[in-house]
Amino acid sequence: MLANAGNGLGHAFLDQDFEEARHVIDTNVTGTLYLIHEVGNEMRERGEGRILITGSIAGFMPGTYQAVYNGTKAFMDSFSFALREELKDSGVTVTCLMPGATEAEFFERADMLDTKIGGGKKDDPADVAKIGFEAMMKGDGDVVSGLKNKIQSALTAVTPSGVLANQHGKMAKPGSAKK
Ligand SMILES: NC(=O)c1ccc[n+]([C@@H]2O[C@H](COP(=O)([O-])OP(=O)(O)OC[C@H]3O[C@@H](n4cnc5c(N)ncnc54)[C@H](OP(=O)(O)O)[C@@H]3O)[C@@H](O)[C@H]2O)c1
């Protein structure tokens, strides 16, 4: 089962439409958990199954100018490992795919095409999907797709949150693509 649906949302939190921000939480967290709860129970009863959750390396850093989204991905990155542990003797595996910026409609839908990250080079979605699928089939706990993202996420573990928030702001600030 692939729990992949998700939305981003650019701009400063106080400038966002609150209903849009809530929709991001509803989709990325509440809807995803509901799906996993329904299908996960069936899998546990059967004694087998594979769940792939699309988290993100965004979950490792405070998402200045995309704060709600990064929060939802931190939730899913964390939730995935907790569920995996709860299901370890059930025959059901849980894997978290953590991509970096990937070519999709994501940044357009999030109104982030004028940002450095939205206008920058991105990973091929077919490569990312293959990496996630293979990790799921192996039953791995998580996989960060791509060497650059692996290095970036390793660095986030030893970088203070304030510094990460500042760096993210430079990548995601509206208008930053022009600089
Ligand atoms: N692109 C990136 O840089 C990136 C990086 C890390 C993680 N991710 C994650 O990757 C996942 C897929 O996003 P994407 O990059 O492929 O973006 P995308 O091109 O915008 O695709 C989003 C997908 O989610 C579905 N979806 C969105 N809201 C939904 C809802 N309320 N109910 C049901 N389906 C919904 C969309 O279905 P419709 O097309 O039918 O609306 C579409 O299939 C998301 O979880 C995202 O957070 C993306």
Topology, element by element:
Elements: E1 2-3, H1 18-46, E2 49-54, H2 67-86, E3 92-98, H3 106-109, H4 116-119, H5 125-138, E4 142-144, H6 147-156, H7 161-172
Parallel strand pairs: 1-2, 2-3, 3-4
Residues 4-7, 27, 31, 54, 56, 99, 101-102, 104-106, 109 line the site of NADP nicotinamide-adenine-dinucleotide phosphate.
Number of strand segments: 4
Strand order of the largest sheet: 1-2-3-4
The main sheet comes to: 4 strands, parallel
Secondary-structure element sequence?
EHEHEHHHEHH
Distance between the termini: 41 Å
Which stretches of 5+ consecutive residues score pLDDT under 50? none
Helix count, per DSSP?
7
Mean of residue pLDDT? 97
**Structural class by helix and strand composition:** alpha/beta
Shape: globular
Strand content: 5-15%
Question: Considering DSSP H and I runs of 4 or more, what fraction of the residues is helical?
Answer: 40-55%
Rg, nearest Å: 16 Å
Ligands in the model, by name, code or SMILES, are: NADP nicotinamide-adenine-dinucleotide phosphate
Written description of the protein model:
This protein is of the alpha/beta class and 179 residues long. The protein is built from seven helices and four strands. It has helices spanning 18-46, 67-86, 106-109, 116-119, 125-138, 147-156, 161-172; strands spanning 2-3, 49-54, 92-98, 142-144. Strands 1-2-3-4 form a four-stranded parallel sheet, sandwiched between helices. Strand 1 (2-3), helix 1 and strand 2 (49-54) form a beta-alpha-beta unit. Helix 1 packs parallel to helix 2. The radius of gyration is 16 Å and the shape is globular. The N and C termini lie far apart (41 Å). NADP nicotinamide-adenine-dinucleotide phosphate binds next to helix 1 and helix 3.
